[in-house]
Amino acid sequence: MKLQLDESNPIVNESHKKLYKEGSDFWEGYHWYIIENDNKLIYRHHGGIYGMQNWFVIYPKQNIGISILTNTSFDKTGEIFEKVVDNLYNDININ
Q: In this predicted structure, what is the pLDDT of residue 5?
C-alpha cells in the first residue's frame, strides 16, 4: 500500500496510467479501475478466488489506502465492499 501511494516512483506512476476510458469518470489502467470525480481520484483493484475476496483502494491525493479481505464470497460481496470502503474513507478523510 505504501508503494502504491508513492507518487515519486516512476513505476507506480506508470501502473496508474489511464489506458481505456469506459465512462465519463471511469477508466481502466494496468490492473486498476480508475475513478475520477467530485475532485477525487481513486485507484481500485478487486480480486479473489472461490470463497475469498479482496478490495484494495488507493486515494493518492489524500494519501489514503484501504484494503479489505474476507473469507466469504457471494453475489453482493463487491457491492458491500464498495459501501464499506466508502464509509471508511469518509471516516478517515477529515478535511
A: 94
